[in-house]
Amino acid sequence: MSGVWLTPQAHERLRAELSTLLAPGAVAEEPEAGRRRAARVREIRELLATAVVGEDPPNDGVAEPGMVLTVRYDDTGDEETFLLGLRDAEDNDLEVYSPASPLGTALTGTRRGEQRAYRVPNGATVRVTLLDAVPYGRHRASSAPAGS
C-alpha cells in the first residue's frame, strides 16, 4: 500500500480543517501566524493528495500502516495495542503511533512473533515482540458492541 493511510473519519477531519483554514476571514493578521497557517495548509494538502482512505491492508499479520498492533515490551512483559497510522487518524479506543515514530519504524514489516529493538529519546534501547497485527477494519468489527 503506497500513500498515507487514514481512517474515513480522519480524512473527513482533515478536509474540514483545510476548509476552515482556507475560509474567507481565516487570514492571520500577524506574519508568524500566517506562516504557520500556510505550512499547515501545505501539510494537509500533501496528506490528502497521498491518502489511502479506509482501505485495509491485507490480513497477513505483517505490521504496516492501517494495522492494529499488539506488542509485548520484553523488559517489563507489559502489552499494548495501538493503531499504526497518523496522529490525525486517532481512534477514541486506541493509542496511535506514527509509522515514522521510533516504535513505528522498528515494527514496520515485522511479522507476528518477531522481536525488534528501538531507541527512545533518553538513549535507552527498548525491545518489543509483535504479538498480533490485524487490519483496522477487522479490529473495529471485532471490538464493536453486539447489535451495532
Automatic annotation (TrEMBL):
InterPro entries for the chain: GreA/GreB_C_sf, Tscrpt_elong_fac_GreA/B_C
Superkingdom of source: Bacteria
Gene3D superfamilies: Transcription elongation factor, GreA/GreB, C-terminal domain
Matches recorded under SUPFAM superfamilies: FKBP-like (SSF54534)
GO MF terms held by the record: DNA binding
Stretches assigned to the Transcription elongation factor GreA/GreB C-terminal domain: 60-132
Name of the protein: Transcription elongation GreA/GreB family factor
